[in-house]
Write a structure and sequence with these properties.
Elements: E1 7-11, H1 16-27, E2 31-36, H2 39-51, E3 55-60, H3 66-80, E4 85-88, H4 106-134, E5 138-143, H5 155-175, E6 180-187, H6 195-201, H7 205-218, H8 227-238, E7 249-252
Parallel strand pairs: 1-2, 1-4, 2-3, 4-5, 5-6, 6-7
Helix pairs in contact: 1-2, 1-8, 3-4, 4-5
Bound molecules: nicotinamide-adenine-dinucleotide.
The site of nicotinamide-adenine-dinucleotide has 31 residues, from helix 1 and helix 6.
Protein name: SDR family oxidoreductase
Organism: Nocardia bovistercoris
InterPro entries: NAD(P)-bd_dom_sf (IPR036291), SDR_fam (IPR002347)
């Protein structure tokens, strides 16, 4: 029970990394607010958490809207008494996976910045405000990407993730005197979540299997990355076992960036 009685907010908890993390956080004893733009999916995650004996509540939240992010964090305080962990996990892909820089429209650019960077900014801001108001520190985890560490995965998408990494380090330094930690999880390509499907890959099992084989071949460890791999790293980074870890960009990539 690494997170016993901790109160956590996870954005994008309706699918992929967010859903897997909600389950793992709850299994470790946390009470979880599952925030997602798709309320039905967030409710489905809550049902899965409850099925394993955990406590969770769903909330509809578009992370590109500051008031909705603030409300999700305040919901955790109302339901669970305080907020210990804010996991800003939402990210959207390049609208047409594989698009070159010059193929992005101004609307593509604006959407990627609003959700991937804006959502993390609002989450960090309102986490810090809440942590300072209640006292006793707190933990922020942001989902970055290997696409913010090397030039892979889309130019504008990667730029938003590079910005998330820099924001994470800045929040870590500003927050340290208040015992607020901030780290970023940097996954490599995960073909089994909804992310690549949202980017236009679709959900045909053969296409997904081909994408899994191709990403696995890029990784020195030879395996595709799963949402569960990220959830395990997330549990560690938000737990007290990581009490002296802050400002870290933590790849979950089978060794891809090290290569
Ligand atoms: N899957 C990959 O290949 C990959 C690789 C590296 C990093 N990442 C990052 O991992 C994170 C999680 O991705 P995933 O693979 O679990 O994706 P996913 O598509 O499975 O899940 C994303 C969830 O976010 C929700 N969402 C989308 N826009 C939202 C918004 N504006 N407000 C609130 N919720 C919103 C979706 O409804 C969905 O439930 C993202 O930050 C993504 O950029 C993914």
């Amino acid at each position: 029970m690494l997170l016993k009685d901790k109160s956590a907010v996870i954005t994008g908890a309706g699918s992929g990394v967010g859903a897997a993390s909600a389950l793992r956080f709850a299994e470790e004893g946390a009470h979880v607010v599952c925030a997602d733009i798709d309320a039905g999916r967030a409710e489905e995650t809550v049902r899965r958490v409850e099925a394993v004996g955990g406590t969770a509540v769903a909330v509809a939240c578009d992370v590109a809207r500051e008031s909705e992010v603030a409300a999700a964090i305040e919901l955790a305080a109302d339901r669970f008494g305080r907020v210990d962990i804010v996991f800003n996990n939402v990210g959207i892909p390049t609208p047409r996976l594989g698009s070159a820089l010059e193929d992005h429209t101004a609307e593509d650019f604006a959407a990627l910045v609003a959700v991937n960077l804006g959502g993390v900014f609002y989450g960090c801001k309102h986490a810090v405000l809440r942590f300072k108001r209640q006292g006793g520190g707190g933990v922020i985890l942001n989902t970055g990407s290997v696409a913010g560490l090397v030039a892979w995965g889309g130019s504008v998408y990667g730029a938003t993730k590079g910005a998330v990494h820099q924001l994470t380090r800045a929040v870590a330094i500003e927050g340290a005197p208040f015992d607020i930690r901030a780290n970023a999880l940097c996954p490599a390509g995960m073909p089994f979540t909804g992310f690549m499907a949202a980017g236009g890959m679709g959900e045909d099992p053969q296409t997904v299997a081909r994408a899994a084989a191709s990403t696995a071949a890029n990784h020195p460890l030879g395996r595709a990355i799963t949402a569960r791999d990220c959830a395990e790293a997330a549990v560690f980074l938000v737990s007290d076992r990581a009490v002296n870890i802050t400002g870290v960009l933590f790849p979950v990539d089978g060794g891809y960036v090290a290569k």
